[in-house]
Design goal:
Elements (H helix, E strand, L loop, with lengths): L3 H17 L2 H18 L17 H18 L9 H13 L8 H10 L6 H12 L8 H10 L4 H23 L3 H6 L1 H16 L1
Helix pairs in contact: 1-2, 1-10, 2-10, 3-4, 3-8, 4-5, 4-8, 6-7, 7-8
Length: 205
């Protein structure tokens, strides 16, 4: 967030989330960031060489993009207030899908999903974050700890595996879906402005 338009966008995103607090609002804020960024953000400087496009496979690209969207919509459906593997998978998939700009951005999303409904207490959540700092990258490794804590008892391993898979899956699906067209997106001024806007919105989120 390095200019006035992105500062305003981050503040607006923060206000929307504070006023609504719903998971659907998180997606709305990111879409708003892309639209606002394309219209009002300055064009970010081009850094380095363009990445080489992979020829890809049209079918696998389409399947990955469709699966990403279907699972994201499913993660927004109402879930039982009691802890469950379905709820765990939905919470971590949603967090993994909405992360732009590094693993630390996932923390407020997970705190809302896990601490908010009382699935895990705040001190345990922060202990997991602290433990993750002692582990080499990536920050997402905190998912295994939190999944095990939420599932607890005999299901702890299943909970850890579910959370870890769910938080990493969106990134792999997006990679398969976007890599073949990444060079064109990276070169398009409107796409670069939109991504700058998304980054600012996520800071506010």
């Amino acid at each position: 967030v390095t200019d006035r338009s992105r500062t305003i966008l981050a503040a607006l995103a923060c206000a929307v989330i504070l006023l609504t607090g719903s998971p659907a609002a998180q997606i709305g804020v990111i879409v708003m960031g892309a639209l606002f960024g394309d219209l009002f953000c300055d064009l970010p400087p081009q850094e380095g060489q363009l990445p080489v496009a992979s020829p890809g496979n049209a079918r696998s690209t389409g399947v990955a993009a469709a699966l990403f969207c279907i699972l994201l919509v499913a993660s927004l459906l109402p879930i039982s207030p009691a802890p469950s593997l379905r709820g765990l998978a939905a919470s971590f998939y949603r967090a993994g899908a909405l992360v732009f700009g590094g693993g630390h951005v996932v923390l407020p999303l997970l705190e809302t999903s896990l601490v908010g409904p009382g699935w895990i207490d705040r001190s345990t959540f922060l202990a997991g974050y602290g433990a993750a700092q002692a582990v080499p990258r990536p920050m997402f490794s905190v998912a295994a700890f939190l999944g095990a804590e939420v599932a607890a008892g005999p299901s702890a391993r299943v909970g850890a595996a579910t959370a870890l898979l769910a938080v990493f899956l969106p990134g792999f699906l997006l990679l398969i879906a976007v890599l073949p067209i990444w060079s064109r997106l990276h070169a398009a001024p409107s796409a670069r402005r939109a991504i700058a806007g998304v980054g600012a919105a996520v800071v506010g989120l």
